[in-house]
Fold each of these.
Amino acid sequence: MLLSSLRLLLLAPIYAAAVSQHDHEDAFSESLTLHPLPDGRTSVLFQFETTFSSPRLSSSIPQSHHSLTPPSLLLPLETNNVSELTISFTSGWDSTRFSSAGLMNYDSSGGGGEIRGWLRDSHDVQDRWNAVTNALGGLFCAGLGGKDKDQGDVVRDFGGIYPQKRRVENTTHFLLSHPESHLCTENLTPFLSLLPSKGLSGISSLLAQPGIIFSWESQSEGIEILMPSTTHQGRWRGWWEGVLPLVPENNKRGNDKTRNFSIEQILRKKLPKPFPEAQSSVLRLIKDLADDNLRAQPNGEEKKEWIDGKSRTVVEWDLSNAELTGNDIQFWWDGENVYHYPRNIPPPPITISRTVVDKLASDGTFQITISNSDDFERRAIYSEIWPWWVKGWMSEIELLVGDRKRPDLLENLSYNPSTPPRISTTTLHFTLLIPANSKATLKIPFSKLTLKYTEHRPDAERGIELSSGILTLLDTLPETASENENSKDSRNTGRKRIYTNRLLLDIPTPDFSMPYNVIIMSSTVMAVFFGLMQGALTRKWGWVEVSNGKGEIVQEKKDQ
Amino acid sequence: MERNKVWTHLQSYRGIIAVGTALRLALFLGASSLCHALERRPELSTPLTSIRSLKEGVYIHERGTNPYDGGVFYHSPIYLAALTYIISASSHFFTAITWTIADVASSIALINVWRSRSGVSNQKRECLITALYLFNPYTLLSCLARSTTSLDNAILLNAIASAANGQALPATILLSLATHTSLYPLLLLPPLVMLLEQTKKSRQKSSVYSTLITFITCFAALAGLNILMADYSWIGQTWGVIINVTDLTPNVGMWWYFFTEMFDHFRTFFLGVFQLHNLIYVAPICLRLSDDPLLAILVLVGIMGTWKSYPTLGDMALWAGLLGCFPEIVSNLRHPLFTLTVHLYTSILLPLLHSLWLLTGTGNANFFYAATMVYGLNASLAVVDVMGAGLRVKVKRDATEMFLKEDIQNDQTQEATNLEVIDKLWEGKGWSVVQFTGSLF
């Protein structure tokens, strides 16, 4: 008795420590979301989220302890004093066919790769950013670092577009866009290795199938890390999203022309064993109003949720439920024998597209069309990032609604020009109003500067990609049901940013086989000129008398 | 009666200028789409002289930011200020008038150069000089493209005309202005000083120094004004670009493709070679043509127009205009027809091959490079030809003078300068000028 109470007394601090640590224990949750799209396809979104705290912050002894978090990801961020970081790779999204302005995950960037984040200020903040991009570039098997050692391609004025998720004072925003990067199988393995379940159990085992995942049409992968502070826990989130067709093109199932599908059918696996450390493991199905007749077997728990400006029905299955393990879930549309591709797909309330018109090899005009199908005016910022060799003509920018010029709609233009010939970026932010039920067209004429022979990338004839333009909506409201009884209000959405497509610009190339020829030929012309001038200037000039045209020199005299 | 009056007016240079002005204004106001298309031609304006860049710079300046801090603005702050505060860059009408006035001022300067050079007022020759300048397609198109080359030319020609008339102050002020706007006119300072010395007829002994001091003062004053307006950033973005050739936009010169294709580690060396190549001719030409500084200016203007880092056809127009003041040289050219036809040929070749490469995107850079090579070689040979013709005329004059001195009974001494007389005499004697293989020294 005495002994046990003594033991209790002795061990009390340890227990207490264990209990207090339990408050901040790392937690992991995962989800798989299916969202059938209006054109016979479905979106699939894998999400993995870990909340964690740093032992460094709570104890005086320097220590690094990881249970669910990947040290290879967090250590570089901790060392370099990163506050927030997002890496995203995206390829392809067709907002006109999918009736949604972008991917289900709002933090996915536009086309290509992108790394952005907030770093705590200090004199070497630029070097630390460089270190982070290089460290994580290795992790994702993709060059995420700048193309230039002077960091000329890093953009620093996008902090307003990508605000901090968690307020931290004295931080700087960095953005490095890699529009040429794309997703490949090399990106999947490192992504899975960052997860605590490593693609072996739980939802991640459904993702660990490159043969299936990479046959999907549109893909987006990314991670987002909020580093822990003394007051807040850290959070890191990874996502993988894709779009796949439900109506098989090469129909091996006989005459099945319906959209009916099951988990096994699309992911080639039955529902997996839950990952034991996962706090929650959920399968979600988002049903649009149009998909009222979408049924599932076994039934899940239904509830209403406000997602991306619309009230939608969400069906949830708890995958930690042992009954579901090893089974399948079937989905079908009641009364659908043959799927008919819809003639009209309602566009999302705001669509944006960017093309190049007046196309010449050396010049062009960006034409950005923003259409607003809502009955109210929207206020937004349209941002562009251009490489240094794209020179825009600011004095010739036009904003049109229909055929009429409307300079009054352009509230502000922030223009940060590049500094050629150094590698640098031009950034543009147009604060503009998009009138109700109309199509605004922004025209930006530009010229392509001539690049040096060494500045062209390998395979220069292919052209160079330009980052997606970003339309940031300034008047969005939180994602809750609006007061009016409508099931639709496009302002109530978490999607603040809508991206345009990437743009492939071909640039006039020199002849790469010519350097020696050009040097030799130009130098020859110069030498000919110099020689003739030198001759004329230094030779003696005089006159001769040629009598009766026989060429006989009668007399020779010299001048000077 | 009326018709006769018009005809006599037309025969005076004023009539030609009136026609030239009317033609320009008519084209500016009547065919503004043509002018708009010409503005974009790389043959007529480089990024350093194009009105489009200038408008862009003025726009950025008016928004309260410094256009030299970034982006592509290479114009002198003088032009920036002039087109911001004096005339609006976006006003088609006022800029049209400015550029027309510039061309008219250039042609009047040419007449002044001719008058001071020949000492006579020959109505027919003046008409010819004016017409050759104002109706030269290179001049006309540069003016319609509103390339600042036209303004540079007007400033430089007036500087030369003032010097030829012995007006030291305006000459130095205008030359420092021209140096500010396009830098290369600095090379004309030595022959200009020599010309001033020759025309002043030793009024003051220390005039070389006073001219130089005036030039430096004006130059520094302008630089000071520019610094007040645009900090120090303009130096690197105007003269820096002219010297370092960082913008490689195609033009008619020999530089852009050379430095596009140049390996980075040789770049500095070849920049030095190309820039020194311009500089190297100044001293020898001034020494060799010391008795005729105006001829030295002519040859140097030709060299600059061909070998400067961002030449345009407007530079060639300046040279051609100046050549009109030297009829004795034109008549002694060895291959004027060749030069002229190759100019015609390149004026077809340049736009054609440019559009193949940069508009339709079907050709590659070699196409346009080939055209600029032809143009550059032709211009180079023409300069050498003019230089040779200048020396031939000199030999002819000297020899005729010698001959006439020996032959004292002959009363033609006063007419020794008359070219027709010289030519007649030489033909009669069967004399011709030759360049010997032996060196002068």
Note: Residues 12-22 of chain A have pLDDT under 50 and may be disordered.
Amino acid sequence: MSKPLHRLRSLAAAGAAVAMATTAAACGGDSGSNADIVWWHIQNQDPMMSTWSDMADEWAEESELTFDVQAIENEAFKERMGTATQSGETPDIFQTWGGGVLTQQVEAGLVKDLTGELDCIDKINPASLDPYTIDGKLYGMPFDGGVVGFWYNKDLFAEAGIEQPPTTWTEFLDAVQALKDSGVAPIALAGGDKWPGHYYWTYLAMRIAGLDAMASAAEAGDFSDAAFVQAGDMLIELAEMEPFQEGFESAGYGEADGQAAHMGEGLTGMELMGQWAPTVQSDASGTEGLGDALGFFPFPEVEGGAGTITEYLGGGNGFAVGVNAPEEVTDFLCYLAEEENQARGVADGGFTTVAADPEAVVPEMDANTEAIVEALASATATQLYLDQAYPPAIGGVINEATEGVILGQISSEDMIEMINDAWAAEQ
Amino acid sequence: MSTAPTTSPARPVVRPADRDGKPSRRRSAGRPGTGTIAAFLAPGLVLFLLFVLAPILFAAYVGFFRWNGLGGPPTDFIGFENFANLVQDKVFLGDLWRVGLLIAGSLVIQLPLAFGLAMLLHQRFPGRTVFRLLFFVPYVLAEAVTGVLFRLIFSERRGFADSLLAAVGIEANVGWLSDRSIVLIVVFGILTWKFFGFYMILYLAGRQNIPDELYEAAAIDGAGSGQMFRRITLPLMGPTLRITVFLSIIGAVQLFDLVFVLTGGGPFHASETMAITMYEQGFQRNQIGYASALSIAMFAISFVFAMFYQRFVLKRDLQGGLTGGGSNGGDR
């Protein structure tokens, strides 16, 4: 054995770790494609993957522009997008969830301002444009949107003697207790993924403090208001009832033993999740899902809180346009927004339509889709998921702190301190 | 410890043979010129500079900035703030504590286990090769694959581990990966499963390098097996032991893939490592500056440790060991 090699190797090993942090900057900008329009989306499974390609082909034929369509898996997309933006070379069209990440990209001068550029904008439900609107300017075009709420198993609720879905927090806690007494885990939660937990704290904060207070807290970077501490305390109160399935601390959302699978198999009473929940429930559990036994109710009101039950946490998927994209890209986005093409997305991609006139896109909706579409239509206000709405550093801390609160590792005051510190560091 | 100055010059054996030796064939070919040396060194050197040294320097530079990685080079210089935050970061301090635990576990359990097995597998018995192969197999698996595998085994529902316990009549309700108090032990168990075969093979090779004559001589002198182990096996395996300790510690400091896939560092940091914290800060939260500072800390830890270890522990081994030069007279 040549001994000096080890020294080199240890250096190299240490160096490799360091390199990990910086490869981001070193490699990137691989959008060196000859096509006129490079398009990155995350529907990397058929049928939707082919449907996007078909739409690109159809429009390419008319416009005589060429496409390079890349279907990238969700997490891989975030990483590639990260390296691409760091090198300043974005694709011409790319997936976006709006909010804080999009804001950072806009501030870095990478995203095209679409305000007034889209002739078809009146086909889209204005409420679904919120996440992509930054300082009054539109930077994205949604193709899917919806709200977060409780998806519940009607059979298990009936067995537990719960006649009506709860509309207040007290009723909700009673329902949790009743489900526990009937011998099922009341709530499915993917603790290992962190983000599903943050919906609880966010909704409680929305209900107690209200959306205006949240907006000004985010503006000032200061969540010290007692209402936010109270939201944490109420979440702790819920967690102390041990309402979650066994082993939720390490459970993933979409895994075969995770949150959605527990719902799909009919093992837990409810989950707090977005419009995609029914699809994932059946996919992850390998079953047909709950079908008619699945119901939806909005996050309950907190007695005496500033928020109302018609305010929703939500979000969706959209496309943003790279600053150097060809002019025609906006026409293509409008092609995607045509009723017929939106309907293809609903059928093949399981999207929830964002059309201003949902009936035109989906004449016959199933009950679950209808619940979401109605909620979005009747929403008095919406709030984008906090881990999307805020800069990634803040969103990450909120997810982390919520996990700590749910697991009883930190207090509500600790949580607020963590969030405030993160905002302070961001300024 | 005879650390008396070894007076031997750097390469005492090779040089005389080349210098004043007879005109050998090698000699007549001439020493390679500087140009030749440079030509052969250049590719490796360029790659090393470009992909090892440059990123380290760049990370060190970025570590002094607040930078989210977007929109051109970093501009917001904040001096040592990232590093100051780092030493107060409970997660990072926890990472150090957990690395310490993993290292302690490796030194006390994993390496001795591998050593013991190597000694056993050195004996002659039927099926020895099969066992050697079997024990080495886990090391061949990619770390990420191992992570996925054990995530299934330790699944909360229908996991193999729970089913196995149930089959032998234990209805234990163990939260293998979900119980904060045991998850690190489970991680350590998996690491041991994965890596003991690697160390075992190293020990086996080290043991086989010891000439049998020494044991025969010792036996003639009336030494018992215990004495032979202490006086022959252990000292002569010293270089192997020292290098495995080194590899094990560096491995623990760098630990990432397996744990990331297995638990993502959770629940609530209970199994988090420095590299996972760095990933979370850099790639999830776009805090490239802070993550770079963390990576520099990791680098410094590895580097300082490697330097000290090689200076003080591996010194004799690096100078040529036992068989390299006869001048190394200090061996017991």
Note: Chain A touches chain B through 56 residues (CB under 8 Å).
